[in-house]
């Protein structure tokens, strides 16, 4: 089975070694066929606390690290503008 990967934007970095990543997806509605946007929020492990709000990151599936955390940040693709 392949390891799942997602690309999303960090929306929260307030927890220690954990970030919340919002992954957006556009899919057709089952009945009407209109393209609608869906956003799913994943809690991901960030060992070095390197990610900040607004960063575009790649996450991959991992073993369960806590009750809700099953993803890990692999790399930061685009860092957010910070002063």
Question: What report would you give on this structure?
Answer:
With 83 residues, the protein is an all-beta fold. The protein has one domain (5-78): OB fold (Dihydrolipoamide Acetyltransferase, E2P). It contains no helices and 5 strands. Strand 1 (5-12) and strand 2 (18-28) form a beta hairpin. The protein is globular, with a radius of gyration of 14 Å. It starts with a strand and ends in a 5-residue tail after the last strand. 16% of the residues are buried.
Task: Give a short overview.
By secondary structure, this protein is mostly beta strands. Helix content is 0%, strand content 53%.
Keyphrases for this structure?
83 residues, mainly beta, OB fold (Dihydrolipoamide Acetyltransferase, E2P), 53% strand, globular, Small ribosomal subunit protein uS17, structural constituent of ribosome, Ribosomal_uS17, NA-bd_OB-fold
């Amino acid at each position: 089975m392949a390891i799942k990967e997602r690309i999303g934007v960090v929306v929260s970095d307030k927890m220690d070694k954990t970030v919340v990543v919002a992954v957006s997806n556009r899919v057709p509605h089952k009945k009407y066929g209109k393209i609608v946007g869906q956003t799913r929020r994943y809690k991901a492990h960030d060992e070095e606390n390197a990610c900040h709000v607004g960063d575009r990151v790649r996450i991959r599936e991992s073993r369960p690290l806590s009750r809700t955390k099953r993803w890990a940040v692999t790399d930061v693709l685009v860092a957010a503008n910070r002063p």
